[in-house]
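Problem 12. The chain below contains 153 residues. Write out its predicted structure in token notation.
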Amino acid sequence: MWKLLDAIASEVSDKARNDNLTALNEARDRRPRLYRQELQNRTDDSDTDDDDTFLAHFLGADEFLPRNTFLNFLSKFGCELTTTERKICENFIFLLCGFDAAEFNISMLPVILGHTPAGTSTRTLVHYAQLIRSELGLNGCPLNTSATDDPKM
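Solution.
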């Protein structure tokens, strides 16, 4: 009895497996013939990598609060003309720094934008944030203990 059931079960499973493979092959044959190689060739035809890199560098992609002539022009003529442009700049600053309408004075926006520092690298800010999160003081000693030596790693 077991041999009969085993033979029937294996025959049914083989037929189901073959039917599934046939259905997959038919679906594969109906799909569009587009391969990764063709996609790369279509995107590589336009040499935009150099343009994107130049534009990112020009806008200060590697700096925090970058300063150059173009950005000075944008901060002066993009944020000081109308109240709508001031609101756009205000929202952009809120994106960077967080929202606190009670503490923000919109009339001070041109002064703030005119006196921002020359900029720093993003890596410096990341290291500063890691120092704060690590609960170590400026000399490397834990803040929550009375240790005076550097931590052993």
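Discussion. The chain has a mean pLDDT of 63. Students who got a different answer should revisit the alignment rule from Section 12.3.
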